[in-house]
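Revision sheet: structure tokens.
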Amino acid sequence: MRAERLSFFVKSVRVVPEGWRLDGEPGYHPQHWARPGDRFDSACGEHGRPERDVNLVVVEISESHGIVTGFGGDQLQPDDILSGERLLESDEAFGGW
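Predicted:
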């Protein structure tokens, strides 16, 4: 198995019926964006706020916002960076190089 790092840069946070709507942008290339069902497990502030544990499941994601549900959304603030990891089967498991 191999892991891909996921991130989302938060610009604003709003409470919505599904959980929290995060305006901002996902990190990395679109192939590494979080997908519905993926989890973010930590949040840290760009300007010195300490890292916090969260357990947020992605409900929806786009290039300009995400909707998450779970534990820790109420702690998010603008300029936070969410991070998580997606575990993938190794290329060898699929006959890769």
